[in-house]
Amino acid sequence: MNKSIIAAILALVLLMPAMVSAYQVALEAKAEKAEVGKGEPFTYTLSIIEEGEPGRPAELVPPDLAGFDVTGTFSSSTMKIIQGKARRVTDQTFRMSSDVPGEHVIPPAKFVMMDPGTGRTETVESNPVKVVVGEKAQGLMKGIADDIRDIKAPKTFLDKARLFFYGMAAIVVLVFFALLGLAIYLFRGRKSAKPESPATSIQGPKASPRDEAMAALARAERLKDDPKAYYAAVADAIRAYLRDTRGIAAFEATTAEIVAEAEKTSIPAAASGLLRLTLDEADLVKFAKYVPTEDEKAAFIGRARRLVSEI
Predict the structure, then answer these.
(1) SS3 label, residue 120
(2) Which residues, 6+ apart, have CB-to-CB distance to 252 below 8 Å?
(3) What string of pLDDT tens digits covers the 311 residues of the chain?
(4) How far apart are CA 176 and CA 271, in angstroms?
(5) What is the pTM of this model?
(6) What is the CB neighbour count within 10 angstroms for residue 125?
(7) What is the DSSP string of 12-78?
(8) Which of 85, 118, 198, 299 is 20 to 30 Å apart from 232, CA to CA?
């Protein structure tokens, strides 16, 4: 009995490194500029670098941006090869400015993971970022305008009357040519107007979104010799199909956002997994410079065609 317990404990100890290394995350923060002027906009980017899939609940706690006015946020997600391993990098970017001169330190962001069994939490922090806000003039053009205003001589009554006369003359000439052009346009339009033939208004039936997607995939298949262009064209065909059939803004969203929006439209679970696999593979070739084999290229477009057929 004691030997069995000892063997179980040893097996658990041996498995713990693999369990721990299954999911790794790191945070990196940076500012577009270390020094900015008062009211000058700049960007602060928080990068979440993940390897593997999280097996427990996790929460991202953004940094406290007190002292800054945030005017917009946007995010993007890509697959990158870092130290020989494929990792998912999610960038959360904040566009902001500050009207408070001085040195500002943006505190670290936090990625908190909780173990549901024990209730314990593990926290990963980013680096703090220092931004110096300096005094800045209200604008170059305002200073130039003030300088010009200072050197202008005061206008006499004769100068004002001459400007008024020139202005009225210019308006009269413009009105004359405008009326002349309108008269010529109406005359030529009446002379050349012909009744439209009924045959010209007849149009053929519009292709369905599925047919258009299949045609786009056929065009993309001609680009196999250029893997990056080939995978990008296939991914664009799928994004256009989701936009036309599901109303998803797929061209402005990341892979994770597209899959989440598609799942809200009640697509089959198998199709959801196929969608994520197809777009992730396209991201790997487009952004991580992965070179696929000919068999992988053929399997990739086959999955894309099956995806269009199923959703």
Answers:
(1) coil
(2) none
(3) 455 554 555 444 444 444 444 678 889 999 999 999 988 999 999 999 888 777 667 788 999 998 899 998 878 888 878 777 778 888 989 999 998 999 999 999 998 887 777 778 889 899 999 999 998 644 444 444 444 454 555 567 778 888 888 888 999 999 999 999 888 988 887 766 555 444 444 555 788 999 999 999 999 999 999 999 999 999 999 999 999 998 999 898 898 899 888 888 878 888 888 889 999 999 999 888 899 999 999 999 999 999 898 88
(4) 66
(5) 0.39
(6) 16
(7) HHHHHHHHHHTSEEEEEEEES-SEEETT--EEEEEEEEEES---S-EEEEPPP-TT-EEEEEEEEEE
(8) 85
Domains and CATH numbers, the chain: 25-134 (2.60.40.740), 209-310 (no CATH)
Query: Phi/psi zone of residue 29: left (φ > 0), alpha (ψ -120 to 50 degrees), beta?
Result: beta
Q: How far apart are CA 170 and CA 175, in angstroms?
A: 9
Looking at the DSSP bridge assignments, the partners of residue 106 are 129
Sign of dihedral through CA atoms 151, 153, 155, 158?
negative
Residue 191: burial class (beta carbons within 10 Å; 0-12, 13-18, 19+): exposed
Cα 157 to Cα 218: distance, rounded to the nearest angstrom: 75
Sequence-separated (6 or more) residues with CB below 8 Å from residue 28? 46, 47, 49, 126, 127
Number of Cα atoms under 13 Å in the Cβ half of residue 80: 13
**Placement of tokens 């369990």 in the chain:** 19
SS (H, E, C) 236-279: HHHHHHHHHHHCCCHHHCCHHHHHHHHHHCCCCHHHHHHHHHHH
